[in-house]
Write a structure and sequence with these properties.
The structure is a single chain. With 582 residues, the protein is an alpha+beta fold. Strands 2, 9, 10, 11, 12, 13, 14, 15, 19, 20, 21 and 22 form a twelve-stranded mixed beta sheet that branches. Strands 5-6-8-7 form a four-stranded antiparallel beta sheet, covered by helices on one side. Strands 16-17-18 form a three-stranded antiparallel beta sheet, with no helix packed on it. Strand 7 and strand 8 form a beta hairpin. It is globular, with a radius of gyration of 32 Å.
Length: 582
Amino acid sequence: MRGVFQRTRHIVTRCRSCKPLLKFSRTIRALSPSDTFIAYVLAGIVVIASILAIRATEYKLFISVPTYGGTIIEGDLGSPRYINPLLSPTDADRDITALTYAGLMKFSGNGKFVPVLAQSYTLSPNGKIYTFILRKNARFSDGTQVTAADVVFTVKKAQDRNLKSPLFQDWHGIIATVINKRTVRFTLPQAYAPFLQNTTLGILPEHLWKNISDAQFPFSKLMTYPVGAGPFIVSNVVRNATSGLIVEYDLKASKNYVFGRPYLNGIDIRFYPNNTERTQALLQGKITNAYGITTDNKNNYVLGAPSSSVFGVFFNENKDPVLTNLAIRKALSLAINRHQLIQNVFNGNGFPIMGPVPPGMGITQTPIPSNTHTIALAARVLTNAGWTYDGNAREWRNKAKKLVFNSLTIKTSNVSSMRNVATAVRNDWQKLGISITIELYEPGDLNQNVIRPRDYQALLSGVAINHGQDLFAFWHSSQRTDPGLNIALYANKTVDALLENARTVRDAKKRLADLNSIEKDISADYPATFIYNPKFIYTIQNTLHGVVMPIINTPSNRFATVATWYTSTNLVWPFLASQKMP
């Protein structure tokens, strides 16, 4: 032991006797105290500068990449009950379903349908047969493999009338067939280009659901603790001690997700009964993310995306002959100051529109009139078409056509946003010299007693276009009566042909051309006063990255890229960086 100590002391003494160090030591001792201080300061500066230079070089040579870690806290509305892709009636249900289930395809952040559980698919020349091959690593959260039998089972449950799935009509008449364990075939009764929208349906594990009857389906424990193939799995469910309602879902990253586990460790979703409490929770930092509300909190920033909805006043020409006059419909449309309405009612969170296709679908939008002199422009349209205004009687007259226009009744839903929009529309139209009455209905009453029997002159409402960009149900003449959704009772043979062709043509460019023509032709006919497209607002914590939102059909679409959201990063050599799939 003594020998080891002596050898160690010898080595240290030899290092201290190093000539450069001895020379530096003698030089320092020879300096005056003030010069010594300056020398040490300069040495410190050199050391700090060297460290900074090394760090700068590191940032130039290395790149920052996402890494695993972090949990975000979502604030949601309501309380989920049916976490199942076949029976998700509320946004709260759909949010958890979107995070825990996966389909053959998904609608990506860039607005394209991309394979998820499917490895690939082919389409027959006649456009009626889709064949999907599943990924080898497609697994449910319990570790079992996703097979073609699971896909067929899910589709057949959607087609089960007794289950009463809202997706029944989407799958009606489609034959799903197991070819082998990893291959499934869909045979359509006729070509339908937007069919890929259907294949975003989350797949159920047959081995867990097959023995559950339709009557017991909504009450299964799997509705609360879902087993899907999505990017997250349920780790904890919190219920209100008094009501028993679910107030929080805690989700953790799934190691079985086909593209690898998500970067985030987890997502906690807390549920609130109203927006007031949810906004307060965001301001207090109890939640980090929330859609539909904004905040000035420095720890958050706000993202926006177009929704797939269009709102406007739809005219019923059968209820009032004056509405058959194109000049009247055009004047009513031009009289609306859309920019001002969106600013006053929605604090600027919306996009003005003049046509039936929402922004974000790749078409050329119909130009919006200037927001100045809208009433003068509308009045000029009427006078140029032979209408004259009688100020004493407060009515527009067209002697040649023996028509008089002096009043209009707008029917709409008794919710705050619709009330406010209706009031703004009334104010603009009254400036044109027309008496406007607003009738408000509870949503269920409006649908049952106004919309379905088409009992209205003018209906302020909205329609949501799915990601398949299929406008057939809203504008084809065959859909003018209930259960069709053509609430403007619009009929145009040219547009009918375009709508039919857009459903069958396989070429994306040709479909887009048809969609452009549909926008142009319907806009020119003014069957409705198209007003605005709501802007989807999503407030997130400022340390969360990778959030890319497509056009929003339902709020759950905000999770389109959730597997690649991240809050943590690492510096690595560029060649070591890998790209995680969505």
